[in-house]
Amino acid sequence: MNDFLNEYLNKKVDEILGSNPDPSKKQALIDNLQTVILDTVIDNLTDEQVMAMQNIDPDSPEMEEKLEEYSATIPNLGKIIEEKLNQEIIRLKDNPASIEDISSSGNS
Asked: Which residues, 6+ apart, have CB-to-CB distance to 66 below 8 Å?
């Protein structure tokens, strides 16, 4: 993930947790927001794009390249991701118990 996105996610998590957050809780929330981003990208792929990625190792550089390539073809993806992230951040702020759930499970 690029530095700009890492900085953005760190800033958003700091908004949720406040100053001096527990490092493991902070990482769990960053992971959760990264999952929101990935889910949003996947939800906006065409069936053909999903099929083309079906046999690629999810952790491989090839998968990352395909996701970047396909993401570039999705109109307004940045706005869509921002909207989904904002919805998740509001959900987390409005429901602090969900933060504990994410932190204890390692993801959402």
From this structure: 49, 52, 53, 56
Domain tally, the chain: 1
Per-residue CA distances from 72 to 60, 69, 90 (Å): 19, 5, 27
Tokens of 14: 């700091």
Phi-psi region of 76 (alpha: psi -120 to 50; beta: other; left: phi over 0): left
Q: Please indicate, yes or no, if residue 18 is contained in any of the structural domains.
A: no
Range of the domain at 39: 3-13+24-105
Residue 36 lies in a domain: yes
> 92 in a domain, yes or no?
yes
pTM, entire model: 0.85
Nearest to 12 by CA among 48, 39, 43, 36: 36
Residue 19 lies inside a defined structural domain of this protein? no
Query: Residues 13-70: pLDDT tens digits?
Result: 998 998 788 899 999 999 999 999 999 999 999 999 999 999 999 889 999 899 999 9
